[in-house]
Structures are given as structure tokens and as C-alpha cells.
Design brief:
Blueprint (H helix, E strand, L loop, with lengths): L2 E3 L8 E6 L7 E7 L6 E8 L6 H12 L4 H27 L12 H28 L4 H13 L6 E5 L4 E5 L1
Antiparallel strand pairs: 1-2, 2-3, 3-4, 5-6
InterPro entries: PepSY-ass_TM
Protein name: PepSY-associated TM helix domain-containing protein
Pfam families: PepSY_TM
Length: 174
């Protein structure tokens, strides 16, 4: 038995979680039991330590590997690796582009749509860069590199020493 989740109300079932070596990584077996009659009401594969059920599991697999297995993980990593290039390229195009001479509502439809696209892109650029950087640390290849990097720094946090020099504080790295 891996975990037990009591029924939140008398009408609900108790969830008993079992680890099963026949299941995939991070998967467990969830057995649903009526707390009064002890009758088994269901048996299903759950995902993760919290025991999320099939719909959220499908969302997680789609987010992780686009439902394509290992190839999907590498494809997602490739997209995240180039996201910052596309984002910064768009911001650069916006910053160096021509300024409009007339109000937005007087622009032709194609130019108005281009203006809307650029405003949305510039508005979410920081979020996209953040998602790219943080997502890569969880990925296959780049994630391995960031894990090795963090492990090499473990326990070697820089120490800072402050000394009074008579004219003020001097900060030296120790």
C-alpha cells in the first residue's frame, strides 16, 4: 500500500493507492472502496504521488511529451530552446520597426492586425522567456546539464567577508 485517502463525505469512496512494478514510471494503482460496505467500486491507474486520475494524467503527458513518447519530449525541448530566439527576434523587430504616422483605428486591416500582434507579443515577451528558461531545466538534455551544474555548486556557496577599512566597509569574497 502506497497511500490511503479517506472518503471526504459519506457518499464518496475511499481511495487506496498501491505501487505496482508493472505500471509505468510515476504511476500507481488506485482502488476505490466504499467505506461502509467495503465493496470495491473501481480500479484505475493514477499518476504521481498525489494520485491524479486519467484526465489530469492525459494533460500532464500532453504537456510533457505531446503524447508522442520520448520523441515528443525532445520535440518539446527543441521548441523551448528556440522560443527565446523567436521572442527576442520579435521584440527586436518591434523596437527597430517604423513608427506609425496615423492612429490605429485608421490603419488598413492588415497593418492593424500586425500592430495587435506586435503589442501582444511585446506584452508577453517576459513571460515567454521565463517559461523557456524554467521549462528547459526540467527537460531531457538541457535539464541534465542544469542538474550537473547545480550538483557541482552544491555546498560551495560563496562566502562574503566585510571589513571596516577606516573610510568605509570593504566587501571581499572569502
Amino acid at each position: 500500500m502506497f497511500a490511503l485517502r479517506p472518503a471526504p463525505t459519506p457518499a464518496d469512496t475511499t481511495r487506496v493507492m498501491f505501487s505496482d512494478p508493472a505500471l509505468g514510471p510515476s504511476e500507481t494503482r488506485a482502488i476505490f472502496v466504499d467505506p461502509f460496505t467495503l465493496a470495491v467500486k473501481g480500479d484505475m491507474v493514477a499518476y504521481g504521488t498525489s494520485g491524479i486520475l486519467p484526465f489530469r494524467t492525459a494533460i500532464d503527458y500532453f504537456h510533457r511529451n505531446l503524447m508522442l513518447g520520448e520523441w515528443g519530449r525532445y520535440y518539446s525541448e527543441l521548441a523551448a530552446s528556440w522560443l527565446w530566439v523567436a521572442t527576442l527576434g520579435g521584440v527586436w523587430l518591434w523596437a527597430t520597426g517604423r513608427r506609425r504616422a496615423r492612429p490605429v483605428n485608421q490603419l488598413p486591416k492588415a497593418q492593424r492586425l500586425r500592430w495587435i500582434h506586435s503589442m501582444i507579443g511585446v506584452s508577453i515577451a517576459v513571460v515567454l522567456l521565463f517559461l523557456s528558461v524554467t521549462g528547459l531545466t526540467w527537460s531531457q538534455a538541457a535539464g541534465r546539464g542544469s542538474t550537473r551544474c547545480a550538483a557541482s555548486w552544491a555546498g560551495s556557496r560563496p562566502r562574503w567577508i566585510c571589513r571596516w577599512t577606516g573610510r568605509g566597509w570593504r566587501i571581499c569574497r572569502g
